[in-house]
Write a structure and sequence with these properties.
By secondary structure, this protein is an all-alpha fold. Helices cover 81% and strands 0% of the residues.
Length: 114
Amino acid sequence: MNYNIAQKSQLDARELLLLESEVKNQGKNMVVAYILWYFLGIFGAHRFYMKKTGTAVTQLVLSITVVGLIATSIWWVIDAFLLHTWVKDHNRNVEGKIMDDIFAQKHFNNAMNR
């Protein structure tokens, strides 16, 4: 669901405002994600935030042991580079779903008006 500028240009101002508002409400915030990563990332908090529950639980459990804490520390550093992409991908997917809903509603309204 990769929507480009051409597809967004089919939306009117009201629909663009709705799209922006819904992406803001349903999307993930980059600052929040990195704050969670920085302060609680060793326990997988950023992964819980990004709905990566399986690996978040794994990080949490590994952090309890000394050997696991070393592995989680390495994992934590790697996540710093991945987190940005996760947030952007999530928000792009949310935007795509919302645009699908807007276009479906538009087509439905057009069909009802015929």
